[in-house]
Amino acid sequence: MKIAVLPGDGIGPEVTAQALKVLDVFVREGMPLEFEQGLIGGCAYDQTGHPLPEATFKLAKEADAILFGAEGGFQYETLPRGLRPGDALLTVRRELQLFANFRPVVAFPELVGASPLKASHIDGLDLVILRELTGDLYFGEPRGVHAENGVQVGINTMRYDEREIRRIAHVAFRTARTRRRRVCSVDKANVLETMELWRSILEEVGREYSDVTLEHLYIDAAAMALLRSPLHFDVIVTGNLFGDILSDEASMLTGSIGMLPSASMGEGTKGLYEPVHGCAPDIAGQDIANPLASILSAAMMLRMSFGESAAADRIERAVRRVLGSGYRTADIAEPGTKQIGTAQMGDLVFAALS
Ligand SMILES: NC(=O)c1ccc[n+]([C@@H]2O[C@H](COP(=O)([O-])OP(=O)(O)OC[C@H]3O[C@@H](n4cnc5c(N)ncnc54)[C@H](O)[C@@H]3O)[C@@H](O)[C@H]2O)c1
Ligand SMILES: CC(C)[C@H](C(=O)O)[C@@H](O)C(=O)O
Ligand SMILES: [Mg+2]
């Protein structure tokens, strides 16, 4: 069980260190996890001149799973033309064809007071955003900035072919079968041809899963409905860009973006596991970031890549035990709770497991 550990930039190394701390419990118990670290993002660019060095890509390709922190932390202006922050992660996702991005949104009962929404609105919340991760505006051609009659024009292309839509649709329906059998497909089929195709393929695939209810929402209405009636949702399947935006929005239902883990899967069991948040330069280096998204991503890794569901359940229970004891990082702190730092949260989850 070889794990490529790519902590990246900003709070990435701080939160990944806590996930590794927690995984160490299982190593001590004899689980054959092997870790190899690689550089990615701004730190890789600073040290090697490229945000995704060849050695890191090789490591990611060869490992059974990838535990990723966050990338960013370098300035747009210092990047060579054509290189954007986010490129290294996008390359790994795309080249390894990790097209199915699971972003579970679960309101821990201990944290219902940390959300800006009323407790009655989110009590029992358990939905998953299934974000298509290797297509859409992120990768469509043509793209770029060029001059037209002396005027600069920026172009990106929303592109999906029917095979890409079909495979994520199957994942959505199969996932719904393990849950409450409801799929909500989010698109913009009233305006965009790409999304018209998206909707028709979802309908076509949906006919193979007559035991699963399929509904469609436009992205604007979905953004609203997610706040108005979050408990309505089970599996939300959507494209790359809409999924990116909806998941940050949904994170606030749980109290903080520091609570949202993710798993990006392809056809097999190899996956990339990362918190949904970024490198958070505003809080980096202060030991105040919430490491629970990273710790919960490690739990997803044990379950989805290594079939170690009991170990994953134990991590999730340990997180709940620590929250139940009143410990909180700053982002989820409420009056009457005990505010602690990143490393201490990792220590407490470790202790709750041991
Ligand atoms: N997967 C990734 O690597 C990833 C994801 C998103 C953004 N980014 C990059 O990160 C950089 C910053 O982006 P951004 O500010 O838009 O998004 P961000 O997710 O880094 O931060 C958004 C806000 O959430 C807070 N936050 C994020 N994670 C937190 C945590 N674990 N605990 C407590 N608070 C947390 C931050 O302090 C900030 O206020 C950019 O360079 C962006 O490209 C990387
Ligand atoms: C860093 C960026 C490329 C990335 C994305 O847009 O996919 C991030 O926002 C995410 O949600 O994983
Ligand atoms: Mg995002």
Automatic annotation (TrEMBL):
GO terms for cellular component: cytosol. It catalyses: (2R,3S)-3-isopropylmalate + NAD(+) = 4-methyl-2-oxopentanoate + CO2 + NADH. Binds 1 Mg(2+) or Mn(2+) ion per subunit. Residues 2-349 form the Isopropylmalate dehydrogenase-like domain. Its main location: cytoplasm. Coiled coil: none annotated. Substrate binds at residues 93, 103, 131, 220. The keyword Amino-acid biosynthesis applies. Gene3D superfamilies: Isopropylmalate Dehydrogenase. SMART domains: Iso_dh. Pathway: Amino-acid biosynthesis; L-leucine biosynthesis; L-leucine from 3-methyl-2-oxobutanoate: step 3/4. InterPro entries: IsoCit/isopropylmalate_DH_CS (IPR019818), IsoPropMal-DH-like_dom (IPR024084), Isopropylmalate_DH (IPR004429). It is found in: Cytoplasm. Its EC number is 1.1.1.85. Mg(2+) binds at residues 220, 244, 248. Keywords: Amino-acid biosynthesis, Branched-chain amino acid biosynthesis, Cytoplasm, Leucine biosynthesis, Magnesium, Manganese, Metal-binding, NAD, Oxidoreductase. GO terms for biological process: L-leucine biosynthetic process. It comes from the Bacteria. Its cofactor is Mg(2+); Mn(2+). Homodimer. Catalyzes the oxidation of 3-carboxy-2-hydroxy-4-methylpentanoate (3-isopropylmalate) to 3-carboxy-4-methyl-2-oxopentanoate. The product decarboxylates to 4-methyl-2 oxopentanoate. PANTHER family: 3-ISOPROPYLMALATE DEHYDROGENASE. This is 3-isopropylmalate dehydrogenase. The gene is leuB.
